[in-house]
Amino acid sequence: MKPSTAITSMARSGIREIMELASQTEGAIHLEVGEPNFNTPEHVTQAASEAGFDGFTRYTPNAGIQPLREALADKVRERNGLDATADQVIVTAGAVAGLYSAMAALVDPGSEILVSDPSWPNYALMMQLQGIDPVYYPLRSENDLVPNAAEIEPLITERTKAIIHNSPGNPTGAITPRESLIELLELAREHDLWVFSDEVYDEMWFDHPPVAMGPLDPDGRVVSFFSFSKTYAMTGWRVGYMVAPEGLSESIIKAQEPITSCVNAPAQKAALAAVTGPQECVQEMRQSYTERRDEVVAVLEDRGVPFVRPTGAFYLMVDVSPSGSQGMPFARRLVEEKGVAVVPGTTFGPESGKYVRVSLATATEPLLEGVGRLADAVLGWGADS
Predict the structure, then answer these.
(1) 248: closest CA among 272, 224, 265, 228?
(2) Which residues have CB under 8 Å from 101's CB, separation 6+?
(3) Could you read off the pLDDT of 106-145 as tens digits, one per residue?
(4) Collapsing DSSP states into helix, strand and coil, what is residue 308?
């Protein structure tokens, strides 16, 4: 007996490979992990603790507890400009489970979904498990890693059913401007595609807040995904949520039942405390990431290392091609010789090998030390070749 073909053909995570190598390297600087280096706010943890002691530990409705759905409807109206009711909000086991459920509900096996190169690798892994083919569209440094609808359209076939768009982006750190969002929606309308709008970094921006795609959608084709993981440093709590167009929620809730059934009850109480409680913690994290971005950009500009200036999330893409190496060989050598862990661009797409992703979710001192060593490698190895 053997595992399924979908599993045996699944590529190993490039992030995991570098993490394991770095864990065996004494004193390695970790710039590969996309996880806030902040603790979950105390009032959030306290809410979960009280829920547990109060016996709020049983199954909840598939779509989440009603007070949380109502609070999230208020949140997306006030902060994202998305006019949604609580019935359109579905609480999920992290945004990843929401995306998986939406794919299962809306896209048949054998179909295609358009996804950017580079992009978060789990998109393609979800598709692989569901028998859906990813079709990559390019994000180019000369366009600040923002999608271009004119380049996407030739990739659309009769099998194309959806497009995934992520802003602020992982790994790009890019925020898609309003005009580009409108062009993507016009393309989706013309070809009758669903749009999966991944906005889990909606509160993580540097210069200006992102524009949500949902409010620009006139005909109910955008499904928007959000998360507590990055906004409130709640990665391990596994709470996300989506906003579905009217009339679509029941289909996605139906798909969620055999996948996760529901989000654990105390975590939902924690999420409720997070979204309804004080928001200063979010502002403090955002300010910290902004300061780190500015300091890292200053180092790279001073050293003459090419990169794409990020406007959101907490990532920065560095072009390592001047080193004469790229992809996993560059990343492995960086760990082995410089003691710095970054994610090779090939993890995020087949044509993104010239980049590495640097996470700004690291304390400032090791972050700047690691970026300095990265610059040494890019410039020094290139001079040696």
Answers:
(1) 224
(2) 90, 92, 252, 255, 256, 259, 260
(3) 999 999 999 999 999 999 999 999 999 999 999 999 999 9
(4) strand
CB 95 within 8 A of CB 108: no
Residue 163, H or E segment: strand 160-166
Length of the chain: 385
pLDDT in tens, 332-384: 999 999 999 999 999 999 999 999 999 999 999 999 999 999 999 999 997 66
Radius of gyration of the chain (CA): 21
Residue ranges per structural domain of the chain? 5-40+280-384, 42-276
pTM above 0.90, yes or no: yes
| CATH no. for 42-276 | 3.40.640.10
| b/e map 217-239, b = 16+ CB within 10 Å | beeebbbbbbbbbbbbbbbebbb
State the pLDDT at residue 12: 76
Q: Which CATH number fits domain 5-40+280-384: 3.30.1140.32, 1.10.10.10, 3.90.1150.10, 3.30.450.30?
A: 3.90.1150.10
Report CA dihedral (37, 41, 46, 49) to the nearest 10 degrees: -30
Amino acid sitting at position 116:
S
Using CA atoms of 157, 159, 163, 164 in order, give the dihedral in degrees to the nearest 10: -130
